[in-house]
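Preliminary data (for renewal application), alpha-L-sorbopyranose complex.
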Amino acid sequence: MKRIKVAVVGTGFIGPAHIEALRRLPNIEVAALCEATIELAKEKAAGLGIDRAYTFDELLQQQDIQSIHICTPNFLHFSQAKAALLAGKHVVCEKPLATKIEEAEELVKIAKESGLVNAIHFNLRYYPLVRQMRVMREKGDLGEIYSVLGSYLQDWLFFQTDYNWRLEPDKSGESRAIADIGSHLLDVIEYVTGLEITEVMADFSTVHKKRLKPLKRIETYSTNTLSAADYEEVPINTEDHANVLLRFSNGNKGSVTVSQVAAGRKNRLNVEIGGSKSNIEWNSERPNEIWVGKRDGANQVLMKDPSLFYSEAVSLISFPGGHNEGFPDTSKQLFKEVYAAVEAGKQPANPTFPTFADGLRELVICERIIESHKKQAWVKV
Ligand code: SOE
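Predicted structure:
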C-alpha cells in the first residue's frame, strides 16, 4: 500500500497526540516534524522516532509530504495553514482555526478554491456516543429540543504557578478558556442538536489575576515546580472561567460553563440535552455511557452495547465488541476519515466531517462571546 506522507508542525502537548493517532493508521507515514528552530526540531524528532526534522519553510519545500497537521500555538495557525494550502498540502489544523474572523474566512476561501482536504480537530465528534446522540436527534428520539446545559471543566491551570502559552493573548488570542475548550463544547452542542446558537450573554472571570511565569522550561502538565527565583510574576487578563447564556434557532435556551481551574476535573465535557420526548446526558470522562431520562417510564444508562446503537455510532467503534473508546481513539477516527478523503482526492461531503468552515463557525461564536462579556449584554451571533 502506498502510504501518505504526513508532517506535524509543533510538538508541545497536542502534536505528539496527533502523531500517536496517525501511527495507528496503516496508510499513513509520519515522515517529518517541524519546530520553531531546527535544533528543537531535531531534538523532538529524535525523541519521537521521526527521521526528518525541518523548520516550517523547509517543510513546505518537501514535495513528498502531502499533508500537514498544524499543532502550534493559536497565533501561528492562520499563516501556517495558508502557506501549507498554497504549497498544495492538505491541512489538519488544531482549533481555533485562527485568532481573527477575517483570517478564518480567508482560510475557508483558499481551502475551497484549492480542492485540498481541510479539517479542524474537533475530535470530540468522533466519540461513538457523541455520534449516537446526534443520530438519536436526527431520528426524532429526543423530540423538540427544549434546553441545553453544558460544561467543560479542567484543572491543569489550577495553581498560580501553572503556566502555558495559552495564558498570553499575543499567542492565544483575546479569549483563553472559551477559545481553547469552549470551542469544543459549543461545536458538540450544535453538532448534536442541529440547532444554531443565535445569541449569547457572557460573563468571564480571571481567578488568578497574577501568575508566576517560569523562567526555565517546565512541562505544563507536570507537577514539577522550580525555586522561587525561577518565576516571574506576570499579570493575567484572559478568562479562567466563563458562564455563557445561549439562545438557539428554535427559540429555546441553554447555558454553558467552562473552567480551567476546577480541581479534580481533568478534562470533563458534560452535556445534557432536554427534549420533548427524552433527556440525554453525556460526560467525556465516562464516554461509553449515555443517560436517557424519561418523564414517564424508566430512565436508562445506554452502555456502549453495539446492538443498542445506530450503525453510524457503531462504525466509530475501533474494536468491535464494545472496547472502550477513549480520547486518543477520537483523533484516530477523525484522521482515518481525513486520509480516506485524501486517497479519494476530495473533501468529504458528509456534514459530520469537521472542516475549516466549522472552525470559522466556532471562531464567530467565540468572538461574539468575547464581545458580549465586554459589553455585559446580549450579542447576536
Ligand atoms: C488544553 O485545554 C487542551 O489541550 C485543549 O487545547 C485541547 O483542545 C483539548 O482537547 C484538551 O485540553
